[in-house]
Design brief:
By secondary structure, this protein is α+β, with helices and mostly antiparallel strands. The protein is built from nine helices and twelve strands. Strands 1, 2, 3, 4, 5, 6 and 7 form a seven-stranded mixed β-sheet that branches. Strands 10-11-12 form a three-stranded antiparallel β-sheet. Strands 8-9 form a two-stranded antiparallel ribbon.
Length: 294
């Protein structure tokens, strides 16, 4: 059963503030819960424990056991209500990107090959902690190549940790080519292009990486710095800083200042491009890219 998106926001909607966005997420979460029966509510709600918060992954269902409610088990009204929660939490660009990522997984499912639980409707929603205006709770929405963790505490909202990717990296939809991560890809190459030749040589690592550098199940992990250090170089010039600050459209640019979306680069930061992946190390903030997606 295909997932139906929540209605699109009107073009005349005023920019959201941090408090209004958190309030909108709470309203949407409560509206979604009101569409569920008792058994469904029990399945979608989880206690706010570290184990439950850490139960997310970029792997498909056959390779990772998720909890909550999967979108293909919901009726049309419930699906729309669930997507409305995401729409409230994300920027318009981020919400569109989520739709494109899940649609890509539907294309992957139809392309043949091993059945590992791919599909546009094979994404799960769960609340870790009860939605509240005062107590913290996290909205988890995830499946293959997508894990959104939107935590709300009063009037504040954070999307960390969040992992986004796409497979296939591009596909045809409605007579046009859709590439969910085109913005990130262009900016990553623009970032490398802004470096001097000797800096590029230092930034490109010899070792090929076959998996995510830092992701699910790796809370608290730190990485040894590699690549080009900022100290003593000019690689953090304006255009490079701008590129790093805008790699993810999932962040809610309607209320989060650029400095809060991504910590300001410091002299201790490094940039490295490991052959078939990209990662930028800034207090644990990583982006990685490969042939199938990011």
């Amino acid at each position: 059963m295909p997932v139906t998106a929540a209605p699109s926001p009107t073009a005349s909607a005023a920019p959201a503030t941090e408090g209004s966005t958190s309030a909108a997420v709470l309203t949407a979460a409560q509206a979604f819960l009101a569409t569920l029966g008792d058994d469904e509510k029990s399945a979608v709600m989880a206690a706010r424990t570290q184990d439950n918060l850490a139960q997310w992954s970029n792997l498909p269902d056959e390779l990772f056991e998720r909890a909550g409610l999967r979108m293909d088990t919901l009726n049309l009204e419930q699906q729309q209500a669930a997507m409305a929660v995401l729409q409230a939490a994300l920027s318009p660009e981020g919400y569109t990107q989520v739709q494109q990522i899940t649609a890509a997984d539907g294309v992957l499912a139809e392309s043949g090959g091993p059945d590992l639980g791919f599909g546009a409707d094979r994404y799960w929603v769960r609340f870790v902690g009860e939605p509240s205006a005062s107590s913290p709770y996290t909205v988890q929405f995830g499946g293959h190549h997508l894990a959104v963790n939107a935590t709300v505490v009063g009037s504040e909202l954070t999307l960390a940790p969040t992992l986004w990717g796409a497979q296939p990296a591009s596909y045809e939809a409605a007579g046009a080519t859709t590439e969910p991560l085109s913005g990130e890809t262009r900016k990553a190459f623009a970032l490398m292009g802004a470096l001097e030749a000797d800096q590029q040589e230092q930034a490109i690592l010899d070792a090929s990486m076959a998996e995510i550098v830092l992701g699910a199940g790796q809370d608290g992990k730190t990485l040894a710095p590699e690549g080009v250090p900022r100290a003593g170089t000019n690689w953090m010039q304006t255009e490079v800083s701008s590129t790093i600050g805008g790699l993810s459209s999932l962040n809610n640019a309607r209320f989060v200042a650029p400095a809060r979306q991504h910590p300001a680069p410091t002299s201790a930061d490094n940039l490295a491009w490991p052959v078939d992946y990209t990662y930028m190390d800034n207090e644990g903030w990583l982006v990685r890219g490969g042939t199938d997606g990011v």
